[in-house]
Fold this sequence. Notes:
By secondary structure, this protein is an alpha/beta fold. It is 40% helix and 18% strand.
Amino acid sequence: MYKRILLKLSGESLMGTQSHGIDPQRLQEYAQQIKAVHEMGVQSVSLSVAETSSADLVGTQKGFDRVKGDQMGMCATVMNSLALSSALEAIGVKTKVLTAIRMEPIGEFYSKWKAIESMESGYVCIFSAGTGSPYFTTDTGSSLRGIEIEADVMLKGTRVDGIYTADPEKDPSATKFAEITYDEIYTRGLKVMDLTATTMCKENNLPIYVFNMDVVGNLERVMRGENIGTLVHN
């Protein structure tokens, strides 16, 4: 079983069946799944949360400066992190929200050493605001944090159950990979994460496991070693 994980949550998944915002039921389901894994004996659990809407893209399409638009997206990740923190605290899980840009007292300013110390003290750390810089996605922010905290794996919780040869919603003949190498992702042109994030994981030997987080209990199944998603590795 993995001892230290970085769980990357999809902002779209947090919306649940809603068209925007955060679905309270989905939030509770995620919190319960995270608590269950935390109680399984995993040494430390950390989370990286994406925004629930493409605030940066919407902003740039309406004429906002790209940097300002990206900063809007960073703020959205902080709001999601606070919501998840609140849901976890309500069921007895200690959390720390760490931000890539200074936002005291909303969250503590991120550092590797603070994160590791907190996790080893029994806190679930929630990383927000991406890398703190524009032009980088939350995928890249998650990869960076996973590498920094020396995670055993990055678990990418999405609305799909793994990586396919093609979009299964558009191509019924698409087949799922049980595992795939980073090199094969490049040659096949598959979009697991953005190129920067994928390259960082490859160069730092951080495996990624893609699975469907929306099925209650799946996070525990991954931690128990069940093959329900796709493993990406060197």
